[in-house]
Each structure stands twice: as C-alpha cells, then as structure tokens.
Design goal:
The chain is an alpha/beta fold. The chain contains 31 helices and 27 strands. It folds into six domains: about 1-105, MutS, DNA mismatch repair protein, domain I, CATH 3.40.1170; about 120-265, MutS, connector domain (Nucleotidyltransferase, domain 5, 2-Layer Sandwich), CATH 3.30.420.110; about 315-405 and about 550-575, MutS, DNA mismatch repair protein, Chain A, domain 3, CATH 1.10.1420.10; about 435-530, MutS, DNA mismatch repair protein, Chain A, domain 3 (Orthogonal Bundle); about 580-790 and about 825-845, Rossmann fold, CATH 3.40.50.300; about 850-884, no CATH class. The strands form five sheets. A seven-stranded mixed β-sheet has the order 13-23-24-25-21-26-27, sandwiched between helices. The chain has a six-stranded mixed β-sheet with strand order 3-4-2-1-5-6, with helices on both faces.
C-alpha cells in the first residue's frame, strides 16, 4: 500500500494527498505533519519507511469538506485520491493485492464546488491571465474569469495600468498564469495585491492553436465563430483557463457557459486602492461587516447576494440600463405589499446555479435535485404574482420568461424525491416509495432482513449472556458481532467459541461472526445492493434530464437572483428613506442632504441621528454654453469633524446611483462618472519598501495620470506625510493640476488652510469647511458642511479629547500661541498672486494688488465670533498690516 501511495504522491508533489483508506482520507510523511498542524488533529505513526517511523494522520470522509475548507483557506492545494475499484475485487486477486486508487481531482481555491467550501454570497472565481506586446512594446492582457460552481465564463482585454482595478473588481480566489509571465516582478506584485492564490503553468502547451482546440473540443464546435468575435488574447486566456480546469478536474467536465466578452468601459472603473478606501465589499480590516455591501444587503437568497456584490463591484455607465433598474426598484418601493409577498416567496428559493454545477460534475446529491425542483416552483410562483400587476419593462421581460417555464421537470422531481433527503446519494433512501416498483420490491426484502438482524441480535445477547452485544456492518468485514474487550475474552473460550468465530481485535472491543450471520449477510447484501443500484440508476436519469434543461434552469436562477436584488434595494430604500437620483450624461453632481449609508446605519442602531450635508460639484458652463470642468471643493476643518465621512459619502452616493439604486439623499443629480478615485486614509506597504507617504504619492500619481473631466476624485490630506513646506507645495501643485488638466469633479480635504486662498485664481474652486463650536476652549463638532474656510484646525483641542496629559496640552497651547504670534512667513495671499498657475500659459500682468488689510477686515464677522476668535483676528490684522 505504501508503494502505491509513494507512486501517486510522486506525481503530485505540490499538493497534500488525501489518500482514501476505508472511511478515512489518510495523509503520510510531510503531508501528515503539515495537515496535523493546520487542522489541529493528532499526528500518529504507522509502519516504517527506510528505517524511520511513517508520520500519519487522517480525517473521516463524511467530514472531509470541513477539513478541506481549512486547508484551502490556509493556502494549500489538495489532491483527492479515491479507491477506483470495489475492495471485493482486490480480495479476489489475493490477500496481498492492493485496492486500485487514483487521483480524481485537485482541490484548489479557484475550483471549489462543494456548498460547505464556498461563501454563499460571493462568487468563487478562477482567473487565467495572458500577455501580448504590440508593435510599440505596449503590454495588453487577456483575462478569463470562470466560476465553475455556477458556470459563469467571461473574458476581458485590458492594459497594465487598468489590470489592478479589474482584478480588484473580480476578487478572484486563484490566478493562473504562465511561468514566464510570473517571472515579471512588477506584474507578480500586482497579482498578489488581492490575496489570490497564484498558480504557474507551462505556457507552450496552451496558447495559439492549442488554445483554439481547447475551446473547440470543450464546446463541440467546428469553428470559433460561434463564440463571437474573440481576440487572440481572449482565446488564449480562455484556453489556458480550460486547460487548468481539465488538469484539476480530471475526467469531470464542469458545465460552463460559452465565454462572453465584457467591455470594461461599460462600467465605472474603480481602482484597488479606492475600493479599499471606500470599503465597498470589505472593511479595511477585511471583514464584510462595516462595508457598504453589508449595510446595503437585504437579499434573501445566496444567488441574490452574489448578484448584488457583482452590481456593486461594477456600476454601470449606460444611463438607459440604469434607468431600467431604477424603474423596477421604484415599482417595488411604491408597492410594499407586493414587495413583501415576493420576498417571502423568494426566501424558499435555493441556490440553483451551484446545485446545477455540482450535478454536472457528478458531485451533486439528492438535495441538489431538490434545489432545482424548488427553484422552478418558486420562479413560477413569482411570475404569477407579478403577472397580476403592470410591472415596468425590466420586470415585464422577467414575467414573460417565467410564465413560459416548462413545469415537467420540477413535477417529475417532485414525484421522484422523498420528503426527507440525505446529503449524500451513496446511502440511498432518497427516492419516494411507489415511484419505481422494482425499487419498492428490493427495499421490502432489505427492510425485512433488517428486522431479522434485530431479532438475531437479541438471540445472540441471550446466548452470550450479555446485553452489550451489537451486530454492526462495514464495507470490509460485512456484518459482524461486536462486544467489549472483557466480554470478547469470554467468547473466545468454551462453550461460546463453538458458535462465535473471532474476526478482529481492537483497542477496546473484539469482533466475531457466526455461520448463520454469514449466510444471512449474503441474502441481505444482495437486496440492499439491488435497491441501492436502482436508486443510483434513477438518480442518474434525473440528473441527465436536468442537464438537458440546463440553459432554462440557469436563466431561471438568474431571473430569481435579479428579482431578489431589485426587491432588496427597494427594501433598503424604503427602510432608510432614500430617493431616486437623476442620472444623465452631463457633468452634474448635485446632492441635497446626502448621508453616509454605513455610518447612518450604525448611528441609527444606537438611536443617534446622522447630520446630512449638501454637495455641489457640478460642471461650470463656459462662454459657449459648454461645461468647462467640474468644481474642485476644498474642505477645511479639524479632525473628527466629519471630513472623511463627507468625502466618502459622496463617492458612495455616486456608486449607488450608477448601480441603479436609490441613494441616501433628499435629492441627487449625478452626471455619469467614468472613473472614481479615492485617496483617503494612511497606510504603508512595508513588503515593497514603501512608506506611508510613498504609498500616498503613488496613489496620487495614478489619479493625476488617469482622471478625466467625467471622473470623480476624492482626496484627503495630500502632502501631510512630509515636511510642512514640502507637503504644502505638493498639495498646491496637485490642486492646480486637478483644476487645469484633469478638470474632474473633486473633493479635496486638507489642513493646509493656505490652499483656500487659491480661490482667487482657480475659477471652479469652492471653499467648504466643517462647522465647529468653540465653547470655553472645548471644541464641539457639529458635523455640518458650510461655505467658506476654517480659520484653524483645533488640533490641540482634539489632542485634549484624545486624553493627552493636561501638562502636554497646556504646553502645546502656549507653543501654538507663540508660533502664531511670530509667524513671519510670506503671506500666502501674495504667493497666490505672484505664482503662475500650473501648466498655464503666460498671462497678462495681474491688476493692481488689492489692499490686504481691507481684505482681511472684510472676512471678519464680529457677530459670529467668540472672544478668543476676536483676539486671534486682531493679532492676524497686526501681522497683515506689518507685511503690507
């Protein structure tokens, strides 16, 4: 047996080998040591190899999915080695014959299908990546994304600069690429950012003609024209993906849709850093709780949850498609009784797509067939309920499809399947009584034999003079008698040994047989085997009929998922009082009383109100009536006043609007955003040797190099990670570039109050500030956004709130007062007047400089000043007078 193990292991060095032995998967040598540490199971030993004890551990087959989940989550690959013949056949060849075994499947993160191994609300994507260089040595990438649990198969073409954003959108569990491609350190680093497992493959065997042949053979096509106009990159990526699936699934063939091209420009592009900053599907700690998806999700099915996550990952740019979704959501918002009825029906809808995927791979069970049955009946019920109304176009199409569903398959499954279904089909007892006469006859004989066994056990208890005797069964010994150790010693002696034949001694029990039991076993086994064979045949026939209807079943699953998402978004909008936004192709961005959906939900749970705020970044019309670019809003104010919340909420409102959802605002008018960029928060990347400031600069560079006038840019505290003058200079230049070159709609939060003076030169710049109240030296945050600029950052007050020692706080106050009093730097107003704009052509001389003292006086509102603010204003006037 160990010779067989070592031979199989030799071909799967990169995997842990699950070696089937009876009712266990056993692991040996280094695999056993690694598995015992990862799984927390006991490491034992059995036999010797080259004079050394053989380490060993095992997991029961019936619980293997749980252990596989832990191993895959820890980054391991597992080769599943099964017995490929009946042990009885091996025994016929002789006592020393070994049961034939072979690897039937490689379990990897991107090829999971079992329900217990998958996250119900998250797609499980395998991504294959290929590269091509054009005549200008510019890299283009072909990418194929497959979810073998549902059959989804999409292909993409993208550039290196957009690759990270696409991978962040897809969140693959595993990425397959050629060894040559993975040798590129810069590319490998980008692939590793999302935490996916990286698997290298030999590229020569799967590209070009080989890739085309893979596709032709897999889909039984004579030409690739039937797949649509796919490029060589897309074909190579799809071929590589199929090759890897064949390597891992062996003889099993997943049911995959034909590869479909996805145009990345059809959706709002969001890079990886922005997704993390905005916490779209995961919080920054990596948890689902605290994300936008968590706050938004009211779906009642697994497929609906996955669909909502896909919508959120790829908001639309097409205003017509957005409007169709809005119409459907508005329909459900306006009819809460219909919405409640549909959601109640949908709760019974199982995960049809994944059930169908398991059945296609011969990994499904009776419950998967029941999922198809129940899903079809649920779909018909939903269609009937909707047909009584006059739904908008998107829902009307769904109703039309559901009304035409063929009910023959679900009716057949309803008649065939028993009420109480086992998880595994191998034990039988899942076909209803009276469905098949031959099966009923075999079961009757089998069940009668069970009663005979029970009676025989009672008789043997009396003969052995013990109540602890049990008749049991397993695949190796068949039927046997089991007693405890002490009673077994008794049965070995006369007169009991005349009837009881010793079979096996265990640690705490002994096993026996009798001539009568052996004869009875033959009759029972034949009846049980016959019943099981009949059930297996019926199961196969039902699966074949279901797979013949796979296209209709998949469309039904998609329709149910879509209904779930639309009703869920309507539920969320109704609960929180959201409104339907106006979405068009302009440069509008006007939000009235906007709120942060996640923060508001958290405050609502604590019984606290959220302070809403307006935001207007709409493009400004030029002399010829054309938008000349969006507004750039500079936001000043102290930490903890709500700047970051305000920044994020406006970005999230734009995302929600473009998935077709209602938004947390009184009103909203959003011109479609092509790209969304966010640089919020501080983090480092020590693995690549990047400091916090370096990460900030890299992300800012990406924004300035890619943002267009239709983009939305959210920036927070640019330049704060370096010296004051360096930071101020960088922030200043970034603002000018955004205004003059990118011309994007942008929110720019900063503590460099000097930047607010750029309003004098940047025509589309507006100053906003977070309102606070200074009460007897203590700062009170009002969380309101107002026009104008903050006069200071209240850093010392915030430090006091944080709990710094009183002595430190008071010392800081004195130092701050001295610094402000002795500030002899050149007034920023003069710098603004003297420095030309970034990348601006030479301009005519500026008009005569205004009276700085009058300007400073004009900014003072004595009716809205505390005594302390009045004193500070007086000192400021003295400084202005001294430098004018």
């Amino acid at each position: 047996m160990m010779a067989q193990y070592l031979e199989i292991k030799r071909d799967h060095q990169d995997c842990l080998l699950f070696y089937r032995m009876g009712d266990f998967y056993e692991l040996f040598f280094e695999d056993a040591k690694l598995a015992s540490q990862t799984l927390g199971i006991v490491l034992t030993k059995r036999g010797k190899h080259l004079g050394e004890d053989i380490p060993m551990c095992g997991v029961p087959i019936e619980r293997s999915d749980d252990y596989l989940h832990k191993l895959i989550a820890s980054g391991h690959r597992v080769a599943v080695c099964e017995q490929t013949e009946d042990p009885a056949e091996a025994r016929k060849r002789g006592n020393k014959s070994v049961v034939k075994r072979g690897v039937i499947r490689l379990v990897t993160p991107g090829t999971l299908t079992e329900e217990r191994l998958l996250e119900p609300g998250r797609a499980n994507l395998l991504v294959a990546l290929v590269r091509q260089r054009d005549q200008d040595e510019k890299s283009l990438f072909g990418l194929a994304a497959v979810d073998i649990s549902t059959g989804a198969f999409d292909v993409y073409v993208t550039e290196f600069g957009a690759l990270g954003a696409l991978l962040a959108r897809l969140e693959p569990r595993e990425i397959v690429a050629s060894e040559t491609l993975l040798a590129d350190a810069a590319l490998l680093g980008r692939l590793q950012d999302g935490g996916a497992a990286i698997t290298p493959l030999n590229e020569k065997a799967f590209f070009g003609r080989a890739a085309e042949k893979k596709l032709l053979d897999y889909y039984h096509l004579g030409t690739l024209d039937g797949l649509g106009p796919l490029s060589h990159l897309e074909i190579n990526a799809a071929g590589l993906c199929l090759a890897y699936i064949e390597q891992t699934q062996f003889a099993a063939k997943p049911r995959l849709n034909r590869p479909s091209r996805v145009e990345t420009r059809a959706t709002l592009e969001i890079d990886a850093a922005t997704r993390v900053n905005l916490e779209l599907t995961r919080s920054q700690s990596g948890q689902r709780q605290g994300s936008l998806l968590s706050a938004l999700d009211r779906t009642v099915t697994s497929a609906g949850a996955r669909t909502l996550a896909e919508w959120l990952a790829a908001p639309l740019r097409d205003i017509e498609k957005i409007a169709l979704r809005q119409d459907a959501i508005a329909f459900f918002v306006d009819d809460p009784l219909l919405r409640a009825e549909l959601r109640k029906i949908l709760r019974a809808a199982p995960d049809m797509a994944r059930a169908l995927g398991r059945l296609a791979l011969d990994r499904g069970g009776p419950r998967d067939l029941a999922a198809l049955r129940d899903g079809m009946f649920t779909a018909k019920q939903c269609g009937a309920v909707l047909a009584e109304k006059k739904p908008p176009f998107l829902l009307a199409k769904a109703v039309e499809f559901l009304a035409d569903l063929d009910t023959a398959l679900p009716q057949l499954l309803g008649a065939a399947l028993a009420d109480d279904l086992p998880l595994d089909r191998r034990g039988g007892n899942f076909i209803s009584a009276a469905f098949d006469q031959q099966l009923d006859e075999a079961r009757a004989l089998r069940d009668e034999s069970r009663r005979i066994i029970a009676a025989l056990q009672g008789r043997y208890c009396e003969k052995a003079e013990t109540r602890q005797l049990k008749i049991k069964h397993n695949n190796f010994l068949g039927y046997f008698i089991e007693v405890n150790q002490a009673q077994g010693e008794k049965l070995l002696k006369a007169p009991f040994n005349a009837d009881f034949i010793h079979r096996q001694t265990m640690a705490d029990a002994m096993r026996f047989s009798t001539t009568e039991l052996s004869q009875l076993e033959s009759r029972i086994t034949n009846a049980a085997d016959e019943a099981l064979a009949i059930e297996s045949r019926i199961f196969g026939e039902l699966v074949a009929q279901a797979l013949d209807k796979s296209a209709e079943l998949e469309a039904t699953a998609s329709a149910l998922a879509g209904l779930d998402v639309l009703t869920a978004l309507a539920e969320a909008a109704s609960e929180a009082g959201w409104s339907r936004p106006r979405v068009d192709n302009s440069l509008a961005f006007q939000i009235e009383a906007g709120r942060h959906p996640v923060v508001e939900a958290a405050l609502r749970a604590r019984g606290e109100p959220f302070v809403p705020n307006d935001c207007d970044l709409s493009g400004i019309m030029g002399a010829k009536g054309k938008d000349i670019g969006g507004k750039l809003a500079v936001i000043t104010g102290p930490n903890m006043a709500g700047k970051s919340t305000f920044l994020r909420q406006n970005a999230l409102i734009a995302i929600l609007a473009q998935i077709g959802s209602f938004v947390p605002a009184k009103t909203a008018h959003i011109g479609v955003v092509d790209r969304l960029f966010s640089r919020v928060g501080a983090s480092d990347d020590l693995a690549r040797g990047r400091s916090t400031f370096m990460v900030e600069m890299v992300e800012t560079a990406a924004i300035l190099n890619q943002a267009t006038e239709k983009s939305l840019v959210i920036l927070d505290e640019i330049g704060r990670g370096t010296a004051t003058y360096d930071g101020l200079s960088i922030a200043w230049a970034v603002m000018e570039h955004l205004h003059e070159v990118n011309r994007a709609r942008a929110l720019f939060a900063t503590h460099f109050h000097e930047l607010t003076h750029l309003r004098q030169k940047l025509s589309r710049l507006v100053n906003l500030c977070m309102r606070v109240s200074d009460w007897r030296g203590d700062v009170v945050f009002l969380h309101e956004v107002a026009q104008g600029s903050a006069d200071r950052s209240y850093g010392v007050q915030v430090a006091s709130l944080a709990g710094l020692p009183t002595t430190v706080v008071e010392r800081a106050r004195k130092i701050l007062a001295e610094l402000e009093l002795n500030d002899l730097r050149t007034p920023v107003e003069r710098l603004v007047a003297d420095l030309p704009l970034f990348a601006a052509p030479l301009q005519a001389p500026e008009p005569k400089h205004k009276d700085a003292l009058r300007d400073a006086l004009a900014e003072i509102d004595p009716d809205d000043m505390t005594p302390r603010q009045a004193l500070e204003a007086l000192f400021n006037l003295k400084r202005v007078a001294a430098h004018d």
